[in-house]
Amino acid sequence: MNQDEIKLLFDQQAAGYDAQWAKTHPIRDCLHLLLDSAFATLPPDARILCVGLGTGAELMHLARQHPGWRFTAVEPSGAMLALCRHAAEREGISARCHFHEGYLESLPDTASFDAATCFLVSQFILDPAARSGFFQGIARRLAPGAMLASSDLASDVQSPAYEVLLRAWMSLMAAADVPADALERMRAAYARDVGILPPEQIASIIAAGGFQPPVPFFQAGLIHGWLSMRADQAR
């Protein structure tokens, strides 16, 4: 899918997105728990860049934990971003947030952020060079030594392990009340529209985007997470 198709897809899904994935929230909560530890040394007035954050789960979590942090939310789906904004208003944190509707390249690239999050986003960029360019765009916006916490679907799709994980993942989705027709569309999308690559290859893509060698810090089924520190030579 191209950028316009991805944006349209998430615009269409926005209204029911959180409800649809409610039963998988334990995975998200575990990721957020580890994220707290990863970001524990950030300053009390840290500036956080959240890339492709959808309805804003990680922003809400971090804002509750750190009342002095400020956030820039980057999301191309206007419908998703509207839900994120409304959630921030309900939480009373909207004054600490800047909401940017669009892709990362339309955000000024001054290196000012102390950390960034990017969860289940880069997997939609199928070309490895463009995917590294995406991470390079994040690196340019981070202060020297700042950290990126990212996650994507990852596996060696040619290996027997992938079939084991995929069956378990689809069973998890079915138990989370994802309809059977949606499961079939998901399986087809994984083969066609999602860049599922071996974890070590994704780590290399991140490193080529201007980061020190990424450190794996999370796995739940097909979702893998990395911590990556901006390299000094990031451009």
UniProtKB/TrEMBL annotation:
Gene Ontology process terms (BP): methylation
Alphabetical list of SUPFAM superfamilies matching this protein: S-adenosyl-L-methionine-dependent methyltransferases
Alphabetized PANTHER family for the sequence: PUTATIVE (AFU_ORTHOLOGUE AFUA_2G14390)-RELATED (PTHR43861:SF3), TRANS-ACONITATE 2-METHYLTRANSFERASE-RELATED (PTHR43861)
Superkingdom assignment: Bacteria
Keywords (A to Z) from UniProt: Methyltransferase, Transferase
Protein name: Methyltransferase
Residues covered by the Methyltransferase domain: 48-145
Pfam families the record matches: Methyltransf_25
Record-level Gene Ontology MF annotations: methyltransferase activity
